[in-house]
Structures are given as C-alpha cells and as structure tokens.
Design a protein that fits this description.
The structure is a single chain. With about 140 residues, the chain is α+β, with helices and mostly antiparallel strands. It has helices at about 1-20, 130-135; strands at about 25, 35-45, 55-60, 60-65, 70-75, 80-85, 95-105, 110-115, 120-125, 140. It has one domain: Sandwich (Immunoglobulin-like), CATH 2.60.40. The protein has two helices and ten strands, in the order H-E-E-E-E-E-E-E-E-E-H-E. The strands form two sheets. The protein has a six-stranded mixed β-sheet. A four-stranded antiparallel β-sheet has the order 4-3-6-7, with no helix packed on it. The longest helix has 20 residues, at about 1-20. The protein is globular and about 40 Å long.
Length: about 140
C-alpha cells in the first residue's frame, strides 16, 4: 500500500514538473531579415485535438513543434516554400502540406494549422490582417 502511494505521488510530481517546465511567451511580432521572408505557422486554441504535438517541417527539414494555441516564427529563403505538419506521436503521420510559391524576401506570411475531426489538421495561408489578428491570441512554445 505504501509503495502504491509513493508511486502515485511520484507520478503526480512528474506531471507537475512537466507542466511547469514548458514555457510560453505571448505573441511578439518580429521583423523579417533583409534577405529572408518570415513565415508564422500557428495553431489556434481549440477544444478539438488539444493533446497532440505537431512537428513543423519546412522544405523537408524539421524546424519546430506546435501545441494548442502556439506559434512558430520561421525565417525562410525566398522562392518556393513547402510547409508540412505531422503529429509527433505518430511517426510518418502526414497531416497536411502547403506550398507557398514565389515567396519574396522581406515578406511576412501567416499559415494557420486548423484542427479537424479525428486529430487531423489542415494548413491555410491567411491574409496579413486576419493572420495578425488570429496569431495575437497564441504563444511561442519553447520546449
């Protein structure tokens, strides 16, 4: 019985420490570098698919992760930019890909990862006014 109690206390402490160690910063707009474009990929707050962590890939290179209500700023080379999201807990689980054509240096783009039913997500590019308004409700996720 005592072993079970200590085991439960240990698990509870791990959960608390795990939650505390995840830091987040409210959205802060950045200026793009002169020779690059800035792409914000974000995942809005949603009661659907809250638990999953999404890996964010740019041109087949993993650049970061998204949790519920988070964003990721990405400095990208001009030209064609391919953004893919995959659920981290399921290897090779492809959710969606969005190709941005003719991305120019100095531009700021907003890409939204919208949760769908059954843990799926879709990517869509938003116009600057809509993207800036929606992303302002998210936080930078650092792991």
């Amino acid at each position: 019985m005592k072993t079970t109690n200590w085991l439960l206390i240990g698990c509870l402490l791990l959960v608390i420490v795990g939650c505390v160690s995840v830091s987040s910063t409210p959205f802060q707009r950045l200026e793009p570098q002169e020779s690059k474009a800035l792409v914000y990929v974000f995942r809005p707050e949603s009661p659907i698919a809250r638990d999953g962590i999404l890996g964010v890939w740019v041109n087949e290179v993993k650049e970061g992760k998204l949790i519920n209500s988070s964003y990721l700023p990405l400095a990208v080379e001009p030209g064609k930019v391919e953004i893919t999201i995959k659920k981290d807990s399921w290897p090779h689980n492809h959710h969606d890909t969005l190709v941005l054509e003719n991305v120019a240096a100095g531009r700021v783009l907003y890409v939204k990862a919208t949760p769908k039913l059954l843990g799926a997500f879709s990517l869509e590019e938003l116009d600057e006014a809509t993207g800036a308004a929606e992303i302002s409700k998210t936080k930078l996720y650092s792991y």
